From TrEMBL, chains A, B:
Name of this chain's protein: 3-isopropylmalate dehydrogenase
Protein role: Catalyzes the oxidation of 3-carboxy-2-hydroxy-4-methylpentanoate (3-isopropylmalate) to 3-carboxy-4-methyl-2-oxopentanoate. The product decarboxylates to 4-methyl-2 oxopentanoate.
PANTHER family membership: 3-ISOPROPYLMALATE DEHYDROGENASE
Isopropylmalate dehydrogenase-like domain residues: 4-348
Enzyme Commission no: 1.1.1.85
Species in which this protein is naturally found: Parapedobacter indicus
Amino acid sequence: MELNIALLPGDGIGPEVVGQAVKVVDAVAEKFGHKINWTSALTGAAAIDAVGDPYPDATHEVCLAADAVLFGAIGHPRYDNDPKAPVRPEQGLLKMRKKLGLFANVRPTFTFPSLIDNSPLKRERIEGTDLIILRELTGGIYFGERGRKDNGDTAFDTCTYTRAEVQRLAKLGFEMAMNRRKKLCCVDKANVLESSRLWRETVQDMEKDFPEVEVSYEFVDAVAMRLVQWPSSYDVIITENLFGDILTDEASVISGSMGLMPSASIGLHTSLFEPIHGSYPQAAGKDIANPLATVLSAAMLFEDAFGLKEEAALIRSVVDKSLAEGVVTEDLAGKNKAYKTSEVGDWLAAQIG
Amino acid sequence: MELNIALLPGDGIGPEVVGQAVKVVDAVAEKFGHKINWTSALTGAAAIDAVGDPYPDATHEVCLAADAVLFGAIGHPRYDNDPKAPVRPEQGLLKMRKKLGLFANVRPTFTFPSLIDNSPLKRERIEGTDLIILRELTGGIYFGERGRKDNGDTAFDTCTYTRAEVQRLAKLGFEMAMNRRKKLCCVDKANVLESSRLWRETVQDMEKDFPEVEVSYEFVDAVAMRLVQWPSSYDVIITENLFGDILTDEASVISGSMGLMPSASIGLHTSLFEPIHGSYPQAAGKDIANPLATVLSAAMLFEDAFGLKEEAALIRSVVDKSLAEGVVTEDLAGKNKAYKTSEVGDWLAAQIG
Ligand SMILES: CC(C)[C@H](C(=O)O)[C@@H](O)C(=O)O
Ligand SMILES: CC(C)[C@H](C(=O)O)[C@@H](O)C(=O)O
């Protein structure tokens, strides 16, 4: 099979971790007889530096032409804590999501048995956790009208949702639940927000089309609690953009395996795969960042973008092996030898070959 | 001293837990020679049933006339999962906050040594945690314009903040930090929201007035992570209404002492004190709910509303004693004897007398 993949390394540790995923993908392609056409493009601070735009049109063209996008991370400390910066790397992320129509961010949270003791939570709380948060990614307060009034002394942001946007996301959630433990939790703040009431009534209307799925409705504040108390009680969670931002990050740390969590963003024009960790600028260029989340994102890419399950399974099995044999970067090495980012990538590729 | 206190028991377990706090307050008043004038009033589902309004004008008058309000909880399952219910108990809560000008919700999160092992977090993560979240309570998306368009198919909510609202809340935060460990964290989403950028720039402008306070700025998603990872790293957190709703609930469970956490809402016209737990309808009328959070809210009432520190300290010390001696309700009793709600209240009052 011929796979056209756009490669957006981004900022900070992005290029390093993406580099290892490329090695792994190439090894898999070699083994299974696929041909990969990689096309790289700039995003984030790197793109601001080069052309003054964190998501340049040229990059958008590359993504549109690709069957899937492999993405690193965006963000640079130069732009933090400056509420008045005219262009910020994150704007590139939002523009990319909107222009590619990446409406659904899929974030699994699961545990690796060998890493469970890294969790801030007690073992008995976290064991068996295997949930997916499906976050709406192109609507809500991220993309509503915003601005200032009264000479800048009043600021406002608008959260807007349409029934169709909710249906599109929820349908995916119901389908995922059908392929899993058939439990769906719709997270909102319907006791306060009108947009949440639209979410809740829309999902309620869809229940009849998926009679096997057990649906629950919970308020976002309650979920922020229960994710810490009993994460294993969730299967598939659907929620709007801002709540999803907060809850996916919260969920990512409870697993104890944050450096390993992949994600997919499903789009109208293409799909994008990225590790959930950020650009981690302190580690950039040091060859110490953990590449496993990006490698596992590449596994999702094979499975979700191309339906290539065997390829995905092979990648996951060599990642399991690297954990079992301790071929890991310093964040996971404990008192044992820490491997370099590039060494982990080489080792994984060699295992596949 | 003569203390005029409005008593709003509310729904579910509200009346039971408030009842125990009243016993304790009366015992303290007796001991210190204060005179308490209690005036009760209806709120929540109870008030809807009686007069069709979850925060009736008569109740508002009672609160306005009082020096402080002791509140139980609001909420009834009859109104949950019904996005179309015309009147909901929570509307009473929001109306009360707005009409009493309760602009700042103060939520401490601390640990009781004897309860640390109840936390879902590992002991070494939670030990030493002593933080306050100061949540803005009368602005933001809770009170902005909202509605439907396109025959109900589009819903919107507006988040609005003014510089003055941010200053009022932040000033309190700086002052609290000065009385504590001098660390203030402003939590926002300034990489996306205009209202957050107003928050951040306003707080930045105030830094010079409190040169001793070390101020940090973090995004809400990062804080949702770090609260689980290293809660003891925070001192005072200030944030807007919706972020505060989510983060205070998340913080409450990590301490392992959720059933014990009190809160204060500081207002323009009066102040209100309430346990952070909800109305817990499953337990209503069974005399099993834990009254300690409400009793500790009464301690905050003595200290914050009337400056009566000794009275507050005495209440806290008898609560400590009840924990040490195991005079606790079933949620905390473990394998030992569980006391009834009313028995715990009687015991505490007797200890004070
Ligand atoms: C960088 C920021 C704009 C972004 C978001 O809030 O969506 C990030 O937190 C994420 O979750 O991908
Ligand atoms: C009941 C609800 C409206 C309320 C809120 O969101 O403020 C509650 O969650 C709280 O935190 O007091």
